Amino acid sequence: MNVPDALRRMTKTYPGGTLALARRITTSEKAASTMDKELRGAPGFKLGVFDALEMSALCIEMRTPGSLDFMTALAAELGVLIIPLPRTEGANTPEAVRALASHSSQSAALLAEACNSLADNDISDNELLRCQRRAADAVASIQALLQAMAEINLAGKPQGGA
Fold first, then answer.
1. Structure letter (DSSP) for residue 84
2. If you ran DSSP here, which 8-state letter would residue 9 be given?
3. Which residues of 4-28 are buried (b: 16+ CB within 10 A; e: fewer)?
4. What is the pLDDT of residues 120-137, one digit of tens each?
5. Distance of alpha carbon 21 from alpha carbon 47, whole angstroms
6. pTM of the model
C-alpha cells in the first residue's frame, strides 16, 4: 500500500469519515472538502505532513481499523518497520487472541494470493497490487498482535512508585 492510499483508507475507517476527521484537525482550519481534495491528489492540493500526522494520531486514539496504515506505508517507503508501543489502558488477553487469529488469517490470505500469482511464472500489475494489499494487511495484523502482547507484558510488571 502506498502512502496516499493508506491515508485514504485510514480516513474512511474514522467514525464519520473525512467530515468528522477534518473537524478534529487542529493544525489547520480545514474544510472537509479541502481534505477530500488533498486525499484525492486533486491538482493544486497537497496534504501537509502535520495534518497527516494528526489524522493518524486521531485514528490511533479511536483505535480504528487501519489506524497505523499511514505510518506503516511511510515506514515501508523508508525501509523500516513500525512496532506499536503498548497502550496504557492495560492488558486485554481476548484482544491479543483476536489479533493472533487475524494475523493467521491475513498471513494465509497473503500466501494464497502470492501462490496464485506465481503459478504461471508471471506477475501482472493487478496481481502485484493484490499481493501488496494483502501484505499491508498482514503487516497491520502483526502490529496489532505485537501491541496486544506488549500490553499484557506491561500489565504483568510491578508499577514503579516514587
1. P
2. H
3. bbbbbbbbeebeeebeebbeebeee
4. 999 999 999 899 888 888
5. 13
6. 0.60
